[in-house]
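G., the chain you wanted modeled:
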Amino acid sequence: MIYQLYYWPTIQGRGEFVRLALEQSGAAYVDVARRSGRGFGVAALMRLLESRNVERPPFAPPFLQAGRRIIGQTANILLFLGPRHALAPRDEGGRLWTHQLQLTMADFLVEIHDTHHPVAAGLYYEDQKKEARRRAADFLENRAPKYLGYFERVLTRNARGERYLVATKPTYADLSMFQIVSGLKYAFPLAMARAGRRYRRLFALHDRIRELPRIAAYLASERRIPFNQEGIFRHYPELDAS
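Predicted structure as tokens:
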């Protein structure tokens, strides 16, 4: 099967979590909006999104077309891909635990995004800089340590060792945590330099995932969109802790 991934072509965003899973699995996929030509591009994404012929339409990108299935929501897509591509445990309890971790990461992502858009997503950052400074300060002091500390504990309590969150080999939860730590290091380099000393296992996990052969090849390729000021993770020096 050749999967078709529908997501915005210029940002990593929530679609990047799906891209990482597809890349690590070696699955064949087309990043539809990043291709040119008939049947591709943003126009193709919008046609499917707005089509009245889709019985179970997705709310927003990312969504994945797998044969006749159209699956929306990042965590839901990963729940589908995980057991099919050895990125989730085989047992039900393990799959639910991996999904639970992914949902917690989704909550974390909302709080990360809101550091630079605390008032409204439809406003420019420049229209809410004062509020963003307050939100980012609280995030770095209170919210980020709460989430990072939780995932650090998850690593230490993995009965199968402290290398990965769930099992003895990477799952999609580990790939997603890699993306979150990468994004935080881009957005808050000063604060994360200190966090790396506090959450050593978690940052070691980031490095371990980065060195996986397929992930390393992906990161070095043109398929990996660079971090920028349009995605979830944005670097504004005035929001970073000194």
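The first strand starts at residue 3 and ends at 6.

Shout if anything looks off.
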